[in-house]
Write a structure and sequence with these properties.
Order of helices and strands of chain A: HHHEEHEHEHEEEHEHEHEEEHE
Radius of gyration of chain A: 26 Å
Largest interface: A-B, 36 and 36 residues
Number of strands of chain A: 13
Structural class of chain A: alpha/beta
Oligomer: homodimer
Largest sheet of chain A: 11 strands, mixed
Chain lengths: ~300, ~300
DNA sequence: GATCCGTACAACCGATGGTTGTGCCCTAGG
DNA sequence: CCTAGGGCACAACCATCGGTTGTACGGATC
């Protein structure tokens, strides 16, 4: 289907005549006639009844019209998503299941008029470079990579510590526990597909392993959360970490268990990073929203790598 | 923008390679390369970074991707809206401000998975013909036209009596009234733009005029509800009828008044009409929804033309 | 450094979609 | 009833676009 033909269809509806639509589109009436004929042939229905003084929509035309308008709207938004200058707010995060995703959903509910685009870059180095270049407006990351301070023109604020919970199947050795300590996890296999080696996310789990002697397998391709949940549910020897905030589409009858981890509770620290001089108006709105909804650190004992920036 | 190019873009993303996308689309790799180059030129951004073994999305490409997928989804729905056989449920009503609109919004909330299209045909004669031909699946109408019984293959059920309220500006003579009787309306000008002469809707108001001696001006073009509300708010000599169910975008500071009408309350009777043999699965769902949410007739005295079909 | 894999460029060609010119049909008006 | 005019469709023509084949180029791997 041709978007130009759809645009022509809408123009004819709005003007009521092929001729006026042609003038509006700066083409000839015959070209409009051809485009509409082509669209009608493609859809295999008649969209207009041609009368002696103009056109009237058929029933099919009436049904098609709102979809046509929607199509043009979406096309416009698609183009706008990459136009430099006045494009939607573009935010990076480590994964779609991370707590940052929940924060952005909340922001979208609070400000539905603000257009958003979410991207997922390789690591914080890439993200910081993208923030500095203006390719993205903000990123949710754990700062910083060990030994590398943030550039001076990048500002950051710690917005959320994401507590990790253990997710097990019903046959797992710890399935019946109300809560587990980190020490109890030693010796159990914990599977974290989707974590890419060389990223600060992987560094986080490396530190967790080093400090508490856990066994974390981050290798293997990521087939999505459905496959992950299926495997965890069916494999007694495997568990995984999952954010307490993550709202999953819970597979029925799998008997999955979420178990809090204590002494200490590992938290993944998300900071919002942005460029000091970024002029995007929605960025200020996002920062205001995040500072308003910031969760106060709870009193429980938590753990994060030593290299994360203090709150 | 070309939808074929967008489809190609998504195919390249999904396969990770120009070549595989080409195979999927049954064109050559060079054609894919051209399409992507054209799309990138049109958007004036680079969508992929070309590597030695395939492609990776740029940041702009990542931001564009969800919009591209959405565009293809909407395009598919647009085509599906006119495909005979498995198209969305197509329902006719007399006006977008009528109570039928509220009923359909409620149905959509209850069954968001059911695709709907709303059309507005000329009158009940046209609507019944469209129902019989299968061009539409159902219509909300006041049945029947005086002296014309419904065809035998058309079934109907009275679903909602829409009580009319008076809508006035703050300077109207009746603006301060808690309620008004029909008799009190005699002599006041009531303006109802958008009612087309020759329809059963016009017949309803003709009857109302004849029975109670009202002054209803149905002439004049309909510039939409915004213009109507503006005029009513600013013109002390004019009022209009409006459904008690209508949820308007209430213009702030206009001081508009909704005043119930009594002794009797004129109601516009909506029936759902459908073809006995219509096989659309969503039609049964709609009928079940309407019978479940049907409002029991309240005890107040109401009026409707004598020619409407009994409940 | 040779090979392989994957994309880009060039040349060619048919299809597509635009224009101009013209015909037909329906409505309005005398 | 006939005519004039407004509006859409068809035909012919032509430029452009988008596809194919053939080939070059560049990066990764062994």
């Amino acid at each position: 289907m041709d978007l130009a033909a759809v645009r022509t269809f809408v123009a004819v509806v709005d003007t009521g005549q092929f001729q006026d639509a042609a003038a509006e589109l700066s083409i000839t009436q015959q070209a409009v006639s051809k485009r509409i004929a082509g669209l009608e042939k493609h859809l295999a229905v008649r969209l207009f009844t041609r009368t002696a003084r103009g056109t009237r929509l058929t029933i099919d035309g009436q049904a098609f019209l709102p979809h046509a308008r929607e199509l043009l709207r979406v096309a416009e938004r698609a183009v706008a998503s990459v136009v430099p200058g006045r494009r939607p707010l573009r935010v990076d995060m480590i994964a779609s299941r991370s707590a940052a995703s929940g924060l952005m959903r909340g922001f979208h509910r609070a400000h539905p008029e603000i257009e958003l685009d979410v991207v997922m870059l390789f690591d914080i180095e890439t993200a910081v470079a993208a923030v500095r270049s203006g390719a993205i407006d903000a990123t949710f990351r754990a700062v910083a990579v060990p030994g590398r301070p943030l550039p001076e023109d990048i500002e950051s604020v710690r917005v959320l510590d994401e507590p990790l919970q253990l997710l097990t199947g019903p046959a797992h050795a710890l399935a019946a526990a109300r809560s587990v300590t980190v020490a109890q996890l030693a010796g159990h296999r914990i599977w974290m597909p989707g974590i890419v080696p060389g990223t600060e996310w992987a560094a986080y789990y490396d530190d967790l392993v080093a400090e508490f002697g856990l066994t974390i397998e981050a290798t293997g391709p990521n087939f999505g959360s459905d496959a992950l949940l299926d495997t965890i549910a069916d494999t007694p020897a495997l568990a995984t970490f999952m954010s307490e905030h993550t709202r999953l589409v819970w597979p029925a009858g799998h008997g999955l268990r979420r178990i809090p981890v204590t002494d200490p509770t590992p938290v993944y620290p998300h900071s919002l990073l942005w460029h000091r001089d970024n002029p995007h108006p929605a960025l200020a709105t996002l920062r205001a929203y995040l500072s308003a909804t910031a969760t106060s650190p709870d009193a429980t004992v938590t753990w994060a790598p030593s290299w994360v920036v203090a709150r």
